[in-house]
Write a structure and sequence with these properties.
The protein is mainly α and about 160 residues long. About 55% of the residues lie in helices and about 0% in strands. It has helices at about 10, 20-30, 30-40, 45-60, 80-95, 105-130, 145. The longest helix has 24 residues, at about 105-130.
Length: about 160
């Protein structure tokens, strides 16, 4: 029996352009891997909790349909209290975490912080103004928006 069948050495030793492959990070920071850490390393509770927190955050930031088998992964707003708690907790972790010898936030951390602030603010405003019930978050911050050419209209 293999505990984490999707994980391979390339998940741990990523090089070059593979560092930009989101799916590798999603597979590594998964609920299954968090459970494997709990099972194999019972003294590493904080590590397992961190992996679960990242997984839940990914699921909230990537909601594609209103309901999901895991309630936390449902459209943002349908499980608003639990979803907001996860996002606020991840925000606090991301804001205080330092990677290596860095004394400031790295770009990925700033990206997460901006995304979380934007989702919370956007949903709050849309809920008040338009009585929005939920928000599908999968397309809000995709890289396809960053790759689109920007044109400045002439005046």
């Amino acid at each position: 029996i293999k505990i984490c069948p999707k994980l391979k050495s390339q998940h741990i030793t990523v090089c070059g352009r593979d560092r930009q492959r989101v799916y590798l990070g999603c597979q590594l920071f998964s609920h299954i891997f968090a459970e494997a850490i709990s099972y194999l390393l019972p003294d590493e509770n904080k590590t397992s909790e961190f992996f679960n927190l990242v997984n839940d955050t990914f699921e909230i930031l990537n909601s594609r349909c209103p309901t999901h088998a895991r309630p936390i992964a449902s459209a943002f707003g349908l499980q608003s209290e639990a979803q907001e708690n996860v996002l606020r907790k991840f925000y606090a972790v991301c804001d205080t975490m330092r990677v290596g010898n860095s004394k400031s936030l790295l770009r990925f951390q700033k990206g997460f912080l901006t995304s979380i602030r934007s989702i919370l603010g956007c949903f709050s405003d849309l809920k008040k103004t338009y009585q929005l019930i939920y928000l599908l978050t999968s397309r809000l911050f995709g890289s396809e928006h960053l790759d689109a050419p920007t044109t400045i209209p002439s005046l």
